[in-house]
């Protein structure tokens, strides 16, 4: 379906703007992905937006044509609007911009197939959507199965997290669960839980990793609760040669994740 | 010296606000570091703010007392103001907040002592201040000597970069230079330049690293220019098991930096 929006007060404009807000995303079960590159990544991962919004006065682009065709074929909506209204929706002064609306994915633990990948990333109380998106991106690079978000984390469907994921939000499975549910699910089958930790930890190089390996990092300022660390199968530590006693959470997950990958493949 | 500021239109308020802007920081040669933790990190690294600004109606805190004493002893200014005016300066609604003004450091290549550390991080055209701060933090953890910023990078003295560095802006040396100057400086003495690259690269695990090792990552979207990669002594690649062909720049620097550290110490 094709539509043109000419007025700022159009309800679709209001709806699109509302999806920048977590509360509205949750209620609608939808999220935004912005930019031609990200939308092309989505398409190549088999994810077609339900709604595609772009400016009337845009340069033609074969990737944009492909997106339009895919949305048409899937019965979605293609909306054209003025550059000004599009700027109002995206908050950006770029008439070349394009935005897609996607249905949120199932984020229950039950939807995960743990034997599908040797590595899974797990974050607890991760607050920064940029860190969350970066972890998704790293997970894609590692060949991880997905990212499991424990307790109260940033929203993986926020515009910032989606952007930082560089398309990995469309390739990595995402699950959300409180700790108790997660640990119960984990112990139902094989799986090694490894924490980046300073307590009672062995050096991360050469530690006995085994697949499927769940790599757990904690909150940006508080780290992991002690009882969560105690429940892990393995606690490992990275060298800290300076003043600081911790790495950025997404960096810690990456350094540890690459060590696990090398260990499992050697 | 002690002062109390009671009016929004006080020139010091305007001055402090102006330091959030790159142009004004450059002109003044000063930068801001915000929050008690960051200021304490600075103090422990021997860096005393020239000016300390805090709210009148604050909770007492021994770390804050230590900061005040240090600023007094160094002949700096301690300024008290209302929570409202402090909020205007910091942009935050937190009357516990505290802000320090520091003189920018020398960022010339000539100020670096390359034999002081086995690893140096180098970033080219890095645009995101959060990534820049995260690289400083990673450098501190690696025991790197510092971060060298090539071509047009984000400002290491921006509030965002300083915050993301978690205090490492005070412990890591920082240099800024165009590529031509950097490569001329590098070749004056011993030093191995290693790029994270996809072109003509060897696996990053087990590559022949040697100290002092300069770990180079490129711009967030464009990567490194081909001629820069060609000028490197070693090009290494990390496994990319998914759709993406790159990692976040700060993540790539960390994964590669930790591999270099392990290699040099083995």
UniProtKB/TrEMBL annotation, chains A, B:
An example of a GO molecular function for this protein is: RNA binding
Alphabetic keyword roster: Methyltransferase, Transferase
Q: Which GO terms describe its biological process?
A: methylation; RNA processing
In what residue span(s) does the RNA 2-O ribose methyltransferase substrate binding domain sit? 32-108
> Which CDD domains does the record cross-reference, listed alphabetically?
SpoU-like_rRNA-MTase
Give Gene Ontology CC terms. cytoplasm
| Family to which this protein belongs | Belongs to the class IV-like SAM-binding methyltransferase superfamily. RNA methyltransferase TrmH family.
Q: Give the PANTHER family listed for this entry.
A: RRNA METHYLTRANSFERASE 3, RRNA METHYLTRANSFERASE 3, MITOCHONDRIAL
Q: What is this protein called?
A: RNA methyltransferase
**What's the source species for this entry?**
Aurantiacibacter marinus
């Amino acid at each position: 379906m094709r539509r043109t929006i000419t007025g700022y007060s159009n309800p679709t404009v209001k709806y699109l703007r509302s999806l920048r807000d977590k509360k509205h995303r949750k209620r609608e079960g939808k999220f935004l992905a912005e930019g031609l590159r990200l939308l092309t990544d989505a398409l190549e991962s088999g994810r077609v937006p339900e709604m595609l919004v772009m400016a009337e006065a845009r340069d033609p682009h074969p990737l944009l044509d492909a997106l339009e065709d895919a949305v048409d074929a899937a019965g979605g909506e293609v909306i054209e609007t003025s550059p000004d209204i599009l700027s109002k929706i995206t908050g950006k002064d770029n008439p070349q911009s394009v935005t897609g609306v996607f249905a949120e994915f199932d984020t229950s633990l039950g939807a995960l197939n743990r034997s599908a990948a040797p590595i899974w990333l797990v974050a607890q109380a991760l607050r920064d959507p940029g860190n969350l998106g970066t972890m998704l991106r790293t997970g894609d690079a590692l060949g991880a199965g997905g990212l499991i978000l424990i307790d109260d984390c940033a929203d993986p469907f926020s515009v910032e997290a989606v952007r930082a994921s560089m398309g990995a939000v469309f390739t990595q499975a995402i699950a959300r669960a409180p700790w108790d549910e997660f640990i119960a699910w984990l112990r139902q089958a094989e799986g090694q839980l490894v924490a980046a930790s300073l307590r009672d930890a062995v050096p991360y190089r050469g530690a006995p990793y085994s697949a499927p390996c769940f790599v757990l990092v904690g909150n940006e300022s508080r780290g992991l609760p002690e009882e969560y660390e105690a429940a892990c199968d393995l606690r490992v530590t990275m060298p800290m040669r300076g003043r600081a006693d911790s790495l950025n959470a997404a960096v810690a997950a990456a350094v540890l994740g690459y060590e696990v990958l090398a260990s499992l493949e050697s």
